[in-house]
Each structure stands twice: as structure tokens, then as C-alpha cells.
Amino acid sequence: MKIGNLIDSNFQNALSKLMTQPLALKVTYKLYNIKKTTEDEFAKYDKIRLDAIARLSEKNADGTPTSDEKGNAQFSPDNLASFAQELNEFLDVEFTHDKVKLEELGESLKLSVQELAALSPILDL
């Protein structure tokens, strides 16, 4: 799975829905591990993203990032381009996790095409 999937709201919503379904213990265990892995990877993503903001954003006199009225960090044009490039490259980084076979989810589980597509990184189709 790519880091970029972690910030996809469709993935997060579909995974949350899947986590509430009654499933066999083996599948529940796999889903628990997937959820834990994605939470851990998201925490790493957020720390690295915040470190990049601190490194590349404009600074106040006290060294903290400057922000606009909405609280968004401000960048020089060159540093904004660098930040965007680094972030886009980072979102393509892959990490390993368990996978669940579609048939393990059972026939009673109802998923939309959008939910199935969003969950495809964790499903063995």
C-alpha cells in the first residue's frame, strides 16, 4: 500500500465500515493488524510532513513556521515547490501490511464499488 492511501478519506471510511462488521476471528485479527499498521504509518507520515513544513516554511523571529489567518504554513515560492515535490514523492512510498482475501469477508458483507476500490490495497482480489 502507498502512504497516499492513508490520507484518502474513501479508504479511511471504508476501512472504518469494515472494522464494524462481524467477521470470523481470523479475518478480524488480520483487519486489526491492518488498522494498527495504517495508524502507525499515518503517525510516521504526519511527523515527517510536519518536519518538512518546519524545515521549508517561512519562519517567525522565534523560529516557528509563519502561518496565514487560517493557520496554514507559509512558504516562499521555491520552498513551496520543493515541499510539494517531496510530499508527492513521499506519498508514493509503499509499506507492507496484511491482506484479506475477498472471499474471507463473506457473502453477507455489503460494499459499494467505491468502497471496494478504496479497500483494494488491503484486499487480495
Q: How is the topology of this model organized?
A:
Blueprint: H1 3-6, H2 9-19, H3 25-56, H4 77-91, E1 100-101, H5 113-119, E2 123-124
Parallel strand pairs: 1-2
Helix pairs in contact: 2-5, 3-4
What attributes does this structure have?
two-stranded parallel sheet, elongated, 5 helices, mainly alpha, 125 residues
Structure in a nutshell:
This protein is 55% helix and 3% strand. It has 125 residues and is mainly α.
Structural commentary:
- With 125 residues, this protein is mainly alpha-helical.
- The protein has one domain (3-124).
- It contains five helices and two strands.
- The chain has helices at residues 3-6, 9-19, 25-56, 77-91, 113-119; strands at 100-101, 123-124.
Secondary structure tally, helices: 5
The major pleated sheet works out as:
2 strands, parallel
**Count of domain modules:** 1
SSE-based structural type: mainly alpha
> Based on CA inertia axes, which overall geometry fits?
elongated
State the strand order across the main sheet. Answer: 1-2
Low-confidence stretches: none
User: What's the number of extended β-strand segments?
Assistant: 2
- Tell me the β content: under 5%
Q: Give the distance, in angstroms, between the N- and C-terminal Cα atoms.
A: 14 Å
The Rg value, from CA coordinates, equals 18 Å
Fraction of residues in H or I helices: 55-70%
Mean pLDDT, rounded to whole units? 94
- The quaternary structure here is single chain
SSE sequence, one letter per element:
HHHHEHE
